[in-house]
Specification:
Largest sheet: 8 strands, parallel, barrel
Number of helices: 12
Radius of gyration: 19 Å
Distance between the termini: 51 Å
Strand content: 15-25%
CATH superfamily: Phosphoenolpyruvate-binding domains
Order of helices and strands: HEHEHEHEHHEHHEHHEHEH
Shape: globular
Number of strands: 8
Strand order of the largest sheet: 1-2-3-4-5-6-7-8
């Protein structure tokens, strides 16, 4: 089941960015009931071999695997889809041309221009015909474009017309910087821009995701129309919070 189907079934889906270098984390959050895990190749030191193992771990736990690749990096996009990821997430999507280029990288003919290879893991190492493999891949691979720039807000109507961009994810932190308001993610100007993307995307049946750091923020995003939420935003945040709280509780304990 792809991410869009999960959203249609559950109304809201929950996941998190995975930066820790152990495939077990993907299994853990999958068994905990999360819907997706974003294997982060942009803001972490994860390598491609670990990425592949994390995709395998995601499959084991019924977790939709999303690989966030470096911006417009064809080599990484190709290796992610050939390793078997369910979804590709591309940072800093700014316009419709870039959106079409991304679709070309991730999808086979007649949708895109992805290079042909039936010897890969996702093609069962040659045990699937090329024609069957191409058909399955074009049906199952989804693409998430990240809206993180003022230019993308201005071009959102055109971006939403590109066939193959299945979902959008708003990166509020980078977007605030693009607006000249670094870190002011609650600024009225930024909130207005974010709401406009959500409203237009939902009207076009393109689900929008955002990060949330706690339950209150996640609920607020749901009320705004966000359909998939990374909460906690990153696995390292949750680990750090748990360790800090545990240590503080021990230090403050009085018999």
């Amino acid at each position: 089941m792809n991410l869009t189907e999960k959203i249609q079934q559950n109304e809201t889906c929950y996941g998190m960015f995975l930066a820790l270098k152990d495939p077990a984390i993907a299994e853990i959050i999958g068994y905990a009931g999360y819907d997706f895990g974003i294997i982060d190749l942009e803001h972490s030191s994860l390598d491609l071999s670990t990425m592949e193992h994390m995709i395998r771990a995601s499959e084991t736990a019924g977790l939709n695997s999303v690989v966030r690749v470096p911006q417009n990096d064809y080599a990484t996009i190709l290796r992610a889809v050939e390793a078997g990821t369910d979804t590709v997430m591309v940072p800093h999507l700014k316009d419709s041309k870039q959106a079409r280029d991304i679709v070309d990288m991730a999808k086979y003919y007649p949708i895109g221009k992805r290079g042909l290879d039936a010897s890969t893991r996702v093609a069962q190492y040659g045990n699937q015909s090329m024609a069957e493999h191409m058909k399955i891949q074009n049906e199952r691979i989804q693409i998430i474009g990240m809206i993180e720039d003022k230019e993308a807000i201005e071009q959102i109507d055109e971006i939403l017309t590109v066939d193959g961009i299945d979902l959008l994810f708003i990166g509020a932190a980078d977007l605030s910087s693009s607006f000249g308001l670094p870190g002011e993610v609650s600024h009225p100007k930024l909130r207005e821009a974010i709401q406009s993307v959500i409203d237009k995307s939902n009207k076009a049946n393109v689900p929008v995701g955002m990060p949330a750091y706690d339950a209150e923020q996640a609920n607020e995003l749901k009320e705004m129309g966000v359909k998939f939420i990374a909460t906690p935003a990153v696995d390292t945040f949750l680990i750090s919070e748990m360790f800090n709280n545990h240590l503080q509780n021990i230090k403050e304990y009085k018999n």
